Amino acid sequence: MNRPALLAPRDLAALAAALHRATPDSRLIAGGTDLMLRLRASGIRPDLLIDLSGLRELAFIRKEGGLVRIGAMTTFAQIQRDAMLAIHASCLSRAAAHVGSVQIRNVATIGGNVANASPCADAMPALLVLDASVGVLNRAGNIERRPLRDLLAEAGTTTLGTDEAIVDFSFAALSANQRSAFGKFGARSSVAVAELNGAMIVKLDETQRTITQARIAFGSIGPAAFVDDRVAAVLLDKPLNNDTIESFAQACSGMVSRSIPHRSSLPYKRHAVRGLAHDLGIAIQGAPMGSGAAEGFE
Amino acid sequence: MATAFKYVGRSYPAPDALRKASGELLYGSDLRLPGMLYARLVLSPHAHAAVGAIDTKAALSVPGVVGVYSYHDAPSTPYCRYRIVPGQAGCIDDEMLFASTARFVGDRVAAVVASSLEAASEAARLIEVVYTQLPPVFGADAALESGATRVHPGGNLVHQFDHATGEPAALPAGAVTTCTAVHTQMLHHAAIEPHTCLANFDASGKLTIYSPCQSVYGARTVVADLLGLAYNRVRVVKVPTGGSFGGKQEFILEPVTAYLAMQTGRPVSLTLDREECIRATTVRPEQRSVVRSAVRADGVLLSLEVDTLLAAGAYAGSSPDYAQAMAHKLTRLYRVGRYRHRGRVAYTNAPVAGGMRGWGAPDVATCAEIHMDQIARRLGLDPFDLRLRNLVHPGDIDPITGRSVGEARVRECLERGAEAFGWRERAAMPAGPGRIRRAVGLACGAHKNGILSGAFPDVCTMTLKMNEDGSLDLNASIHEVGAASVVTLKTIIAEELDVAPETISAREADSETSPYDFGCFGSRMTYVCGAGARALAAKLRDRLIAAAAELLQISPMILEAVNGRVRRIGVAGSDLSYPEIVRGSRMRHARDMIVTHTYKGTSNPGSYCVQFAQVEVDVLTGLTRVIRMLTAVDIGRAINRGMVEGQCRGAIQAGIGSALCEEVVLDGAGRAGTGGFKNYHLVNAADMPPVTVLLVEHDGDDGPYGAKSVGEIATVPTAAAIVNAVNRALGTAMTTLPLTPERIVAALGKVAEVAEVAEVAEVAEVGGWDASCS
Amino acid sequence: MQLSTVLNGRQVSLDIAPDARLIDVLRNELELTGTKEGCAEGECGACTVVIDGVAVNACLVLAAQVQGKSVLTVEGLASAGHANALQRKFVELGAIQCGFCTPGMLMSATALLARNSKPSHDEIRRALAGNLCRCTGYAAIIEAVAAAADEGGSAQ
């Protein structure tokens, strides 16, 4: 039986060297929670497995000035529990708390979640509204920064090359007048694939009444998560109250109709997205400001 | 409680609980025999196809592969996976070891045997089968249309029946007729242990099968008949079962594993993965029943007619009996002058239907109890009152079977349950106008106690031996599947002999060494086997007393057995201990303290359960949360109280799934089970509501100390109670299970449409429940 | 390749295939069959083991990924043949029926109690949400974990 070769780089130089050997049949393995399933289901035997789990230097969460940086090998359990993220990127904290089970969150990484590019990946809408950029290491050992949205391709794939690996994510920490929220629902209240998920960031004026900026992203609608500016526009210059949220919910329905006009799931998702919109609206009203106190999870 | 029990009614751990907690207990897939090989099945990817040439070259070149087997070399004798008793009526021999025509996605086409599981899996992927696809037929309706593709040469109608009791009568003035069409879905048993089997064929020509099955003698019947072996050359050993729920009742892996062991002359182990378990073992059948009733204006049932169409899937299996079982439930539950149940069972190119917890009872209760709520809504009656007006009374005769329903305490379950749940108060609360609607629902269910039915007997044989130190060995064909049956039997014997349960040892079934028993199904373990154990222990006690009398040279009439000793009635210090009797009797009178007893069941009363559910439905997402449940069970007597409560809660976990989220879905190509548990959602710990268990205990039935069955009945009304609660919360009339968010949103859309267009108060009338009645 | 790991407190070294799953190495190479396989997709939790203090599905991890780490399986819970508090409470409180989910439940609970010695019932339910049980309806399992916590957790 053909066994794959296994490389377990311990630092970025070794990772770059490993990427040199990678072919289209090679696979990077981070937490493994998606890849192990894919390999098993497909029966594909890679020629090379590059195990990233020994890259301790990629498991970090840092705030550098106004910038938040998260290493690709940071697990969702670590993100979920991080006090700094709870304030400066609460939508991501909450998204992390909604990923799979305890067992999954203990090994699944943010880098793996993005690289796997599942349409329902929970980290994706949160990272998209945070306008994250992705640090990508190539075989030459150079790290290049790309906007996350440029990484997403159609149908659950990325634009990453065979010889590239995600090393980190960075985004601006939420400012004092910004709030963020994450929403999701699935077949169970926990441990469920998202039927719909989404994240939003709003910026309020000094009086804390009027929304001056809004950014919203959705997952599980179509092949890849996306930011929708038309929906966000509904919130602009509006007070953050129930009426605004209701019109936001209506706009979300329209967004679903535009996004998946031919899918059999349209009638349901068009309706149910209003629930997601209301969840986001309620969460955002209670969400901490960029410098506020942490909220409880789950 | 009238009688004080010493051991009965307390809580005991499951058998082998410590070894389960230490990881030491070996389940089927943990067993390793010297030289053992691993098998892997090649299952049809097509719902209907003729199997042509099979190219095994690449597979055979995988290192470690020992052989590849298919219909090209295996016997083509048809058999029935459900047969327990040789020549059993109602069994249709329509399945083969390997299919020459694949009849569903998952049909066994070939098997690979190799020295490692990895090699077997790799080789299985490399086997190239030439299929000639045939048009498939999905859905029992479509299968029975004229000109439909024939799943089997004889046509798609597997079985039909028409049972009726009472005469149709003219309806009195004011009577109301109601019709409801209810559809219940295919379900996966979801035992956490996947199906597994290990077989070994030794040089003496004896076949030994290690299986976590529910009937060693049934497995023996099927395998020995199929492979042409004498019954005493096939030894089936029951190994620990990691859950069954009826999923291991039929003999799915035993025949093929036995065949592979015979072909290779080495032990062969076969374990399915989760997708295969969902797709290629058995499912609860998909069925649709149209329920029609006539009631007096005050709610008294005048007649009830049910028309059931059930999909057997690709092979008949137990479906004919299963469908027929549905016809034997409602007349145990309600007093009704006229009952008619017609049933049809059809082959389809879908996964094979089989027995599952409750065996038709949850299926028909779901239909009837949704129907009852519809009647209640039309008459403006409280669902509680409607039930109370019609439920059977103790001692009623079930007109379909002609047998007594026994000490049926279903009315007490309803009344005490409603009281404890706060039904009146909760039912009076409005669902609310907001996003989250809240309501309560209830449902009743009836099941049975054992398999005594018509000419079919219920009987079990056991042997009990007392050793010289007073310890006891029970030899019986026990099939422990997670309900602690072993402990139940020990507790009964302990109570009867007045000895500590720990002094009794009991092994599980082994067809070579343990006496005959049908197996663990049909809600017969406690009621029938338990009564058998009690009679057995009483017999041994009588022998001990007789032996003591002989040793003491006094009349046995003045002796009694108390606390592990035999003494003169009421006279302390006049006694012999059990060990003294065993030793003395053997050495002085050449007698052995061993008894065998064959117990014959003579009754089959109803088991009853009434459940109350409170739900919250999100009208935006369509998600339902069950927030509270109460189950009131007419158990007669709880032998092992803790396990009974565990059974009740587990039954509700499964019932919630069947109401809301569990469904084996076929994709357009007829594929089921894709993604395993990722797409088949069991209720997990976070979503499990608090459940109050209320046990109604009493004497009066033939079970040990009055005990009746619990594991099956406890899941019978769950789905209906929840569906009724959701329909009450939303004003909908949903009758297609499960109530997925999509279905709920769609039903809400209909309600809104009707309300807008016609401003009808009774929007529910057009919401769904009579949709298929016209 | 050579794998070195601390397994149930003992240093273990063995040759493994680079793409072998941890569960297969545990069950087949090391004959520790207490870790059960219920779905092979990280959904049922029957294969849960504790790696460096946290609960992980052994079916989704390469054995190679536990290189140099510490792995605890159900076989490592008892000391000198004596069941620990968690195991005893599972037995006593009826948390075990068929027993197939039990090892995974115990390991998830072990990881929980190591991090949170007095979890609320809700915390227990969420910590066990990745472990499916079809027999018990979970109530007795949750009670057993709470009772073990009251007795000082799995350490005793």
Explain what the structure shows.
The complex is a heterotrimer of chains A (298), B (774) and C (156). Chain A has 298 residues and is an alpha+beta fold. Chain A is 35% helix and 23% strand. In chain A, the strands form 3 sheets. A 5-stranded antiparallel β-sheet of chain A has the order 4-5-8-6-7. Chain A has a 4-stranded antiparallel β-sheet with strand order 9-10-11-12, with helices on both faces. Chain A is globular, with a radius of gyration of 19 Å. Chain B has 774 residues and is of the alpha+beta class. Chain B is built from 19 helices and 26 strands. In chain B, the strands form 6 sheets. A 7-stranded mixed β-sheet of chain B has the order 3-5-1-12-9-10-11, with helices on both faces. In chain B, strands 7-15-14-13-8 form a 5-stranded mixed β-sheet. In chain B, strands 16-24-25-26 form a 4-stranded mixed β-sheet, sandwiched between helices. Chain B starts with 16 loop residues before the first helix and ends in a 16-residue tail after the last helix. The relative contact order of chain B is 0.13. With 156 residues, chain C is of the alpha+beta class. Chain C folds into 2 domains: 2-76, Ubiquitin-like (UB roll) (Roll), CATH 3.10.20; 85-150, [2Fe-2S]-binding domain (DNA polymerase, domain 1). Chain C has 5 helices and 5 strands; from the N terminus they run ββαβββαααα. Chain C has helices at 22-29, 85-92, 102-115, 121-127, 139-150, and strands spanning 2-7, 10-15, 48-51, 54-57, 70-72. Chain C has a 5-stranded mixed β-sheet with strand order 2-1-5-3-4, with helices on one face. Chain C is globular, with a radius of gyration of 15 Å. The termini of chain C are far apart.
